[in-house]
Each structure stands twice: as C-alpha cells, then as structure tokens.
Amino acid sequence: MPSVLPLDPPQRLVRALHGHPDADEAAAAAKWLEKLPGLLETLLERWELTDERLVSPGGRTSLVVLVRRADGTPAALKLTAPGTSAAREAEALACWDGRGAVRLVRAAPEDGALLLERLHGEVSLRSLPEAKAMLEASSALRRLWVPPADGHGFEQVAERTAAEAEMMRTHTPGEARPLVDEALELRDGLLAGTPRQVLLHGDFRQGAVLSASAERSPWLAVGPDPLVGEPAYDLARLVRDRLHDLMASAGAPAATRRRMHRLADALELDRERLRGWALFRAVRSGVRHVWRGDRQDGEALLEFAGWL
What we know:
alpha+beta, Phosphorylase Kinase, domain 1, Aminoglycoside 3'-phosphotransferase, Chain: A, domain 2, five-stranded antiparallel beta sheet, 15% strand
C-alpha cells in the first residue's frame, strides 16, 4: 500500500552520498535520492507492506524502513544506494540462510531492494562491554565463514584490493607515502599465499551485528559487502573497532596489538596475516577519508595503521 511516511532521508545518508568526490557518482546518488519516495511506494504496494517508521540515523549507503507484511509479520525494507550491490548482498544472505546473519525474505536487486527479517536495530554489539562484544563478534563471524557455492558471483579479495590499491596510489597524502608503500607491499605478499577461501562479510564490525531473537540466535550480522577470500581479511576490520575510544586510552598502540593477537588466537588465524590485512585496510580507509575531505578521521586511521 502507499507509504504514509513523510520520506525525509536521514542526514547521515544524504551527507555521505553528496560528499562523494567523484562528480558522476555524486550525481547518480542525488538522482537516486530524488526517486526514493516513488520507489518506496512502488515496493510497498508490490510486496503488500505497511510502513511503520524510518530507521534513523541509519547508514551511509542505504535507507531502511520498518514495515509489516500482509500477515502482520514485522520486517525491514532496505533500499540500497548506487555503488552498492543488492544482488551480491542478497546472494550472500541466501547462502548463509539465517546462520549468523539476518534472514533474507525477498529481493528485487534491479531496484536495489531487500526485504529482511526485523532485528533489534537499536541494539548492536557496541552496546556491550568491550571484552564481551569481541567474544560475541568472534562467534558470529566464525559462523559466516562458509565455502562459497559453485558458480558464485562474488568478487575475490585480490580483485577488490586491486581497485583499492590504485585509489591509494592516486590519492595518497604526501606525508602518508611511506605507510601506503608498506601497505601495498604487504598486500602483494599476502596475495602470494594460498590460505583457505571462504565467503566473507566484507564490512564486519561490532555495529554490523544486531540483537535478534534468543530462540534462533542472540546476535546476527547485517549489511554485508560480500566477497571471497581468507578469513584474516574479514577479521581485520574488527581490529580497529571503537577506534576513537581506543585512541583516547593510555597505551593505545600496545592495546591494539594485544587486541589483534587475542582475535587471531581466538579464531585460530595467523597473527602476521591478520596484522598485514589490518594495516592495509586501515591505510586504505584512511586515504579514502582524506580524499573525501574527512581529514580528521582519515588521519586517525593512518595513525592507527602506524601502530601495527
């Protein structure tokens, strides 16, 4: 049925999309934002949904509306922005089929639309004390690392990081050149190895694991940016979780290394491979933030990478 919501996209989403340094991508995002109200109404009618409220502040690449299905079952309708792949996300969620991740109800990848089971979106692992959050995160992540299906359409880590490496070479702040060179050299060495290949979440962090029903699983992952590669690549993003809290603590570099070693040991991964991917991914994110004009967060990420 038609939407009863006044659709005013969350400012976090608007700022993120309009702030893209690539003019073509920013224009595509602006066009998508203009079409959102009509797209929402179309999907509500097509899937016989009743909208309840917009999730805010929401994410930076998608809009989520809490809805109810025709039978009254609560669900969440996710509309993904240009530059993200609803098709890949749907494929990954279908592969996991609710094991460690939110369950996919239905999808319209051509519209960037996913209908998902509703979780407690306001409660993520970030609500837990640090030690407990990391324990639960490790447990959730382990369940996601399954062999990809034959004929899958996911990117490989080598493919994704090749594009990222080119971005890093092109947009490196001058003072970060030695760190970028080290990150690129580490990437080359890591890709020369042959560790086990599994389906990865791609953007796994505490904020991407939400409270769910106790009957099935207390915590489930959401928002994957899936690809195929070694587990250490996936764990690397978790190493820098709660970065600003970490930076404000005493002895942050040593605490970071202890955290990294605990995570590697808990998931039975090689410490040096995790260090390499954690450094590469932090440098990549730092360079990207600086390129997009967010110098403060970019410099924090590059400082973090230096601790590794």
